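Recall the central idea of this unit: under ordinary conditions, the amino acid sequence of a chain determines the structure it adopts. In this exercise we apply that idea directly, starting from the sequence alone.
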Amino acid sequence: MLDAAAGRYACVPAVGDSLRLADGSRALEILDDDLAAALMDAGFVRLFEGPSLAEDLPGPVEREARRHPHGARPDVRLIAEAVKVGASQFHGRTFSQLTTAAAGRNGRAGARGVDLALAADLAAAFYQALPWIPFQGDCLYRSFVLQALLAQRDLSATWVFGVQTWPFEAHCWLQVEDMVLDDTCDHVRGFTPILAV
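Accordingly, the structure predicted from this sequence is:
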């Protein structure tokens, strides 16, 4: 379960028979009243009153952005932009603030439409610059910064959050259509998307 307000994931074992997705939406139906009360008391779920949640999760990834050969010279300007985005827009923000900012950027970006080649080229350059970008191993940070750099160039990308069970792990990545920009297909296929921004 994702607590979007607090930015926490939790694995709740042995409740699979008591939970299901409502038909035609991503709303969770809890079939056991005691479990529903316990999850509500813990702050994991809340009653949803409103229209059905639209299915907005992207399809599976089939391609990944090209990688520059190792040893290629990184773009120093891109490194500076990435560090600036991280310092001014990421650090000190809550998960909710980060996803709200990303959604707003995506809403303003996209003037060029979907340009897979440009997005892939920027992702490849970003990948090459990663060793010089602080916190580059953190998927949340890496995806947030790359999404901001894309938006600065009027390109949008979907920020996808997924989970896997046993062992429980959460992960996020950027995706445009069926192309993953900041990871590999093999890695992200191991996660079930639960949120897309």
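The beta strands are 2-3, 8-9, 19-21, 28-30, 63-64, 158-164, 169-176, 179-180, 192-196.
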